[in-house]
Design brief:
The chain is of the alpha+beta class. Helix content is about 20%, strand content about 20%. A five-stranded antiparallel beta sheet has the order 3-7-6-5-4. A three-stranded antiparallel beta sheet has the order 2-1-8, with no helix packed on it. Strand 1 and strand 2 form a beta hairpin. The longest helix has 21 residues. Bound molecules: zinc ion. The site of zinc ion has 8 residues, from loops.
């Protein structure tokens, strides 16, 4: 009889823990959500000024927990936990928030830091910087120029030719394999198939 009571108590404790786990808030959760590395099909469309501006609640709907924390709250993923720090491949690293092209694979280098590292952005206009004074240090924060999403920091111990190290969070990036998308060209009508129909 005693053991039956004990069993019921144990089951109740188990249920209580399960419910508590389900109701845990974002900040309590330590689970890691792997960001997709493939480009998504539905990035938010830029406005007339070429920028993507959305309310935090809208970003929260689009991004997973860790992406929101890094991109919108200037967070940093733990070193060696992202899926792109050791990623190799020919292609373009794009913003996970808005899809803007940010870094070419040719500029990625092995930094040993556990974060994807590049010596320069794909275009000067792709990124913007601010001075980040968090943690009692003055560091150069770098973010996407289109959506303002936080990417990481820039350090001056990078390799040639720039001497810079763009230390970027994996979750801030998606990867598109292959050549960078060509600049938008004026729409042209597709070449017409030769036709034997009487003309
Ligand atoms: Zn962006």
């Amino acid at each position: 009889m005693k053991s039956a009571v004990l069993l019921v108590v144990l089951v109740l404790i188990g249920v209580a823990f399960a419910l508590r786990g389900a109701g845990a808030s974002d900040s309590e959760s330590t689970e890691r959500i792997v960001a997709p590395t493939a480009a998504r099909a539905d990035y938010p469309a830029p406005g007339a000024d070429g920028k993507v501006s959305m309310e935090p609640a809208q970003w929260r709907e689009r991004l997973n927990k860790e992406e929101f924390y890094v991109l919108r709250e200037q967070g940093t993923e733990r070193a060696f936990t992202g899926d792109l720090w050791d990623h190799k491949g020919h292609g373009t690293y794009t913003c996970a928030g808005c899809g803007q092209e940010l870094f070419a694979s040719e500029t990625k280098f092995k930094s040993g830091t556990g974060w994807p590292s590049y010596y320069e952005p794909i275009a000067e206009a792709a990124v913007e910087t601010t001075v980040d004074r968090a943690w009692g240090m003055a560091r150069t924060e770098v973010h996407c120029s289109r959506c303002g999403g936080h990417l990481g920091h820039i350090f001056t111990d990078g390799p040639r030719p720039t001497g810079l190290r763009y230390c970027i969070n994996s979750v801030s990036l998606d990867f598109v394999s292959g050549e960078p998308a060509p600049a938008p060209a004026p729409a042209t009508s597709p070449p017409k198939e030769p036709s034997s129909a009487g003309e």
